[in-house]
Amino acid sequence: MINYIIRRVLWAIPVLLVISLVTFGLGHAIPGGPFDREKPLPAEIIANLESYYGLDDPSWKQYTDYLWNALHGDFGPSYSSRSRTVNDIISAHFPVSAQLGVLALFVAMVIGIPLGMIASLRQNTFIDYFCMFFALLGVSVPSMTLGPLLVWVFALKLNILPVARWGTWQQAILPAFTLGIGSAAILARLTRASMLQVIREDYIRTARSKGVSEKNVTVYHALKNALIPVVTIIGPLFATLVTGSLIVEQIFAIPGCGKYFITSITNRDYPVVLGIMLLYALLIIIANLIVDITYSWIDPRIRYS
Amino acid sequence: MEIKSKEKEKFESETVIPERPEVSLWKDAFRRMCKNKMAVVGAIIIIALLILAIFAPYIAPYHYAKGSLKDNYAKPGDKYLLGADFMGRDVLSRIIYGTRISLSVGIVGALTSFIIGILYGVISGYYGGKVDNIMMRFVDIMYGFPTLLLIILMMVLFKSTFAVTTPGTFAATLSAIDKAFGGLFFIFIGIGITAWIGMARIARGMALSLREKEFVEAARATGNSNFQIMMKHILPNLIGPCVVAVTLRIPRFITFEAFLSFIGLGVNPPTPSWGMMISEGYKAIRSYPHLALYPGIALAITMMAFNFLGDGLRDALDPRMK
Q1: Which residue of chain A comes nearest to B152, CA vs CA?
Q2: Minimum-distance CB partner of B152 among A137, A265, A288
Q3: Which of A236, A120, A102 lies closest to A179 in space, CA to CA?
Q4: 3-class secondary structure, A85
Q5: Which residues of A are less than 8 Å from B258 in CB distance?
Q6: How far is A243 from chain B (nearest CA, A)?
Q7: How far apart are CA B215 and CA B228, in angstroms?
């Protein structure tokens, strides 16, 4: 088990290396430099800027320099906002994306898990069908539909919530719901399927025949075990929510990493692009690693060699 | 005497049993799917969307690119059923033409993930060992990429590399193809490059367990080549769950395109992509909410149809799930 974890953690290093290399390569293959303007700068100034940022070095040297600095925790300067480094930008914008991700995850869990539970306890009744239809709806309605719809209803028609931007708790409600509803639906379906499986287990029948009250059977015997698969996907769900939040960030003009990523690509600000890409890749890798480990920790039948 | 009567009994019972008609997995699945109302609804919607996409020029009341500026921002009414956009173009017609974009992206994504993903997964899982190790390490790397960010980066690369080129070169040919597709070609490539990864993992896992089964051993014992075993014995056994997985993935490809067009990295105007229509309409949502909401509803209905169908297919192909 320890060996397995160590091997998986070590394997993340070459994965990140390749991702950085591919991103670096793609970024450099895009024609046009970061200092191209509508009104071209004098050649001398561009040459000066390029030598200042090391852009006149051969590509391989730029890459190895980048890696060397990155290993020391320095992800380089930003070309488009001169006074800030990539570290500054990420530490300013990533918390916003992370907050949005946490809030969306909260929405997803608070709506999704109870919905799945109710559906499973009333299997094949109208309530079950209603909950599952709602879940199917939630999976199918993309943020691009839900976002404008929620804005129209709650911000423009009812006028109770702000249209966009980030900062107050009111401003967080619509984006968190837009981002979280899809995951709520996923959690609801997973909880329902898992509950239905657990309810048929022998130990549930044993508990009932011992005279345990139906409420206690549901909560302590069934739900506790049924939540195992639900808990394990929360890590990757969080990673998906954060990395996928750029759609919602775009709709609600939220200054998160995703929105900044798109701006940086248009500005040819490669160090920022590379930094955000690596950060998100790391997030995905860690989330996947946590799932695999928690699986074997919660369910000892799974063994990794 | 006793033996004789037993034999007679056996003979009688054999003849009495009414012969059950032979039903293949797919026929059986189709029959069960028809009983699932949601799946039927999904299939009907998808067929309707296909008809809209194919016969768009005959069904749409107006051309998708030609509007009359004096009708800009027309409210939904008799002349324009769903209103008109900022250039006076009919929203309904643009939505109808937009089915072409969304469906073709969904189909291309499904085909690439199906063909490349399954082949890759089957080869990796069937051979196992070193081959599997190397092939899956590559998948691991691709799996670490934040997909949406990677596609955005690729789109920027494609769009700007092939934008200004001298005629006659390879890049110019690609660019011409992309223009002919209204900017869709590079989206196909971007989605194709990333779409197969998840599929390969699913197919590989199943091939890994299938190759231990007795019937594979039997096939090998009777002298089948590896290629024959993969094609005749492994592939048919994992194709069902893979069809389900692909159907449930189509909505993802459709949202990718819609989002790329939403941020201006997708189709070229005036090609009517739902994502682009939402982004154009969202700017005017305060006064003209219909511009962003109708294409959004079209997008949601399409995704719902594929989810309905995928769920129904899963229940039909795997009766144990019920």
Answers
A1: A262
A2: A265
A3: A102
A4: strand
A5: 142, 144
A6: 7
A7: 13
Cβ–Cβ of B289/A18 closer than 8 Å? no
Nearest CA in chain A to B38: A133
Question: Contacts for A44-52 with beta carbons within 8 Å, 24 or more apart?
Answer: none
How many A/B residue pairs have CB atoms within 8 Å? 120
pLDDT for A304: 55
Checking phi first, is residue B74 left (phi over 0); if not, alpha (psi -120 to 50) or beta?
Answer: beta
B160, B263, B292 ranked by CB distance to A30: nearest: B160
Q: Interface pTM (ipTM) of the complex?
A: 0.83
Between residues B72 and A183, the one the model is more confident about = A183
Residue A40 has φ and ψ, to the nearest 5°, of -60, 140
Phi, psi of A77 (to 5 degrees): -85, 160
Do the Cβ atoms of B149 and A276 come within 8 Å? yes
Cβ contact (<8 Å) for B144 and A144? no
Confidence class of residue B163 from pLDDT cuts 50, 70 and 90? low
Q: Which of A179, A278, A297, A185 is nearest to A238 (CA)?
A: A179
Give the per-residue pLDDT at B306. 92
The C-alpha angle with vertex B109 and arms to B106 and B114, in degrees rounded to 5, equals 120
- Taking alpha carbons only, the member of B309, B279, B248, B64 closest to residue A145 is B279
**Range with top average pLDDT, A83-92, A161-170, B63-72:** A83-92
- ∠ CA(A39), CA(A41), CA(A46), 5° rounding? 150
Separation CA B91–CA A234 (nearest Å)? 40
B206: number of Cβ within 10 Å? 21
Is B258's Cβ below 8 Å from some Cβ in A?
A: yes
Whether A137 and B275 lie within 8 Å, measured CB to CB = no
A-facing residues of B in 4-63 (CB < 8 A) are 38
B127 close to A (CB below 8 A): no
Is the pTM here over 0.80, yes or no? yes
Cα A292 to Cα A102, A302, B144: the distances in Å are 21, 10, 15
> For tokens 């929510």, what's the residue?
A241
Q: Are A238 and A105 within 8 A, CB to CB?
A: yes
Long-range contacts of residues A132-135, Cβ cutoff 8 Å, at least 24 apart: A132/A188, A132/A189, A132/A192, A134/A185, A134/A188, A135/A184, A135/A185, A135/A186, A135/A188, A135/A189, A135/A192
Residue B48: pLDDT over 90: yes
**pLDDT higher than 60, residue B177:** yes
Contacts of B175 (CB under 8 A, 6+ apart): B162, B163, B165
